[in-house]
Amino acid sequence: MNTRVDSRMIELVHVNRSFKRADGQTVKAVQDVSVVVEEGEFVCLVGPSGCGKSTLLQMVAGLLEPSDGGIAVAGKEISGPGRERGMVFQKDSVFPWMRVIDNVEYGLKCRGVAAAQRRDIARTYLARVGLAHVERAWPRELSGGMLKRVAIATVFANGGRVLLLDEPFGALDYVTRRQLQSVLLNLWDEGGSAARRTILFVTHDVDEALALADRILVFHSGRQVDDLAVTAERPRTVDSLLLPDMVAIKRKLLAHLGLEEGSAASRIAASHEAGV
C-alpha cells in the first residue's frame, strides 16, 4: 500500500559529485544541489556545457552515485537504476539487432510481462508516436527523428513514473525537433494532469525549455543558480514565446548563459575576445 501523503516525486538534498581527473585534480561537477520536483512536473535543466546537468540526471537515474547528499524518488532513497525511472540518452540507444517493436517491448520483457500484453503495449505507443507502419523495420532503416520516436515510445511503454531525458533532440533539425517536442508533450499530457509522468529534461536550447517546461532550473559551474516558473498555457506556439512574461524569462536565461547583452558573463566574454 502506498502511504505517501505528499506530492514530492524527486528530492535531492545537498547533493555533490566530484571526479578525479587523470592529472589527479578534483573536479566538482555538482555542488550542494537541493531540489524538489513535484509529481507530474515537467522540469528542464539548462546551463552551459560542463555545468553538471547531465551528471545530475545520471545520479537521479542511479547510474552515478553522489559523493555526498541524498536522492530520493517517490520517498525512497535510490541506490541504483530502477524500473520506476526511464532514461532517453542524447545518442541513439536502440538495439540495432532488434526490430523496432522488439526494442519497444524489451523493458517489458525483462520485467516478465506476458508476450501478448507487451506486444499490445508496444503497438499502442508506436501508434502514438506515429510509427505503427514501421514496427517490423530495423533501426538502420530509420531516420534520426524516427529513432528518437522509438526511444520515446520505449520509455513510455516501460511505465516508469519518472522520465529522464538528456538532450534527446539536440542533434535533430529544427522541424523534426519541434515535431518531437509535440509528440513528447502529447504523451506526457495524455490522461490529464493526474496521469502525467514526472520529467527531467536536459537541454541547451532556451526556446525548447520555454516550450516544454513547467519549471526551468538553471545551472552554472555545478550549482543551481535559478529556478524559473513557466506558467504560459499549452500548447505554446511561436507567438506565445513572444509574450512579455516569456520574453522576460528568456532574457534571464540568456543572461545566465552569457548571451544577453549587458550581462556580467557577456562582458567577461567580450573582454577576453578583446584581449583585455
State the main characteristics.
276 residues; alpha/beta; Rossmann fold; 2 domains; six-stranded mixed beta sheet; four-stranded antiparallel beta sheet; 8 helices; globular; disordered C terminus
Structure in a nutshell:
The protein contains eight helices and ten strands.
User: Main β-sheet, in a few words?
Assistant: 6 strands, mixed
N-to-C span: 64 Å
| Low-pLDDT segments | 262-276
| Strand order across the largest sheet | 6-7-8-3-9-10
Report the count of strand segments: 10
Please state the average pLDDT score. Answer: 89
| Number of separate structural domains | 2
Q: What is the percentage of strand-forming residues? A: 15-25%
SS summary, helix count: 8
Radius of gyration: 20 Å
Shape: globular
State the fourth-level CATH superfamily of the largest domain: P-loop containing nucleotide triphosphate hydrolases
Helical percent range? 25-40%
By CATH, the architecture of the largest domain is named 3-Layer(aba) Sandwich
Structural class: alpha/beta
The CATH class of the largest domain is identified as: Alpha Beta
The CATH topology of the largest domain is Rossmann fold
List the secondary-structure elements in sequence, H or E.
Answer: EEEHEEEHHHEHEHEEHH
Overview of this structure, please?
With 276 residues, the chain is an alpha/beta fold. It has two domains: 8-84 and 160-273, Rossmann fold; 93-159, no CATH class. It is 34% helix and 24% strand. It contains eight helices and ten strands. The longest helix has 16 residues, at 174-189. The relative contact order is 0.15.
